[in-house]
Amino acid sequence: MTREALRQRQEDVLGALLRGEVPGGFDPRSAELTARVLRTKRRSDAVEAVPHLRDVTDLAARFDRWAAGHPRSGCAHDDVVDFVTDDDGVLPEPLASIRSVERVYRRRARWARDRRPGARPWVLAVGPWVWHAGPRVAPASPPASSALVSK
């Protein structure tokens, strides 16, 4: 088997496992276990890259369903941005703002509201340009410490 043929076979096997299919010549039970491990590893990489994903309701099912149809195209951060952009479920901030803004950049929406601290609140697509408009959203002030509060 040539190097190119081996690379293609590995790519086919990995793709089938990630889609939840059993590659030819593989034990179905072992293939399912391997696919589950690969999905869990991809999801844990995404959570490690962006810890806010821990706050997403039913993350495992939602991420795994999305990942089955979307092969990894970059790093874990790219996975997170692609997931939150494509997912239609409820997302906590700042992920909801990232989804809104990214949909404008990908031309799936003409405008968005960005609620992240330090960002301009309006994101508008005008022709080939994307504009961030409005005054910057002030970051939330840190809670007052009891040692610093005068009595």
Automatic annotation (TrEMBL):
Pfam families on file: SCO6045_C
Record-linked InterPro entries: SCO6045-like_C
Positions of the SCO6045-like C-terminal domain: 8-85
The protein's name: SCO6045-like C-terminal domain-containing protein
Organism listed in the record: Aeromicrobium fastidiosum
Lineage: Bacteria, Bacillati, Actinomycetota, Actinomycetes, Propionibacteriales
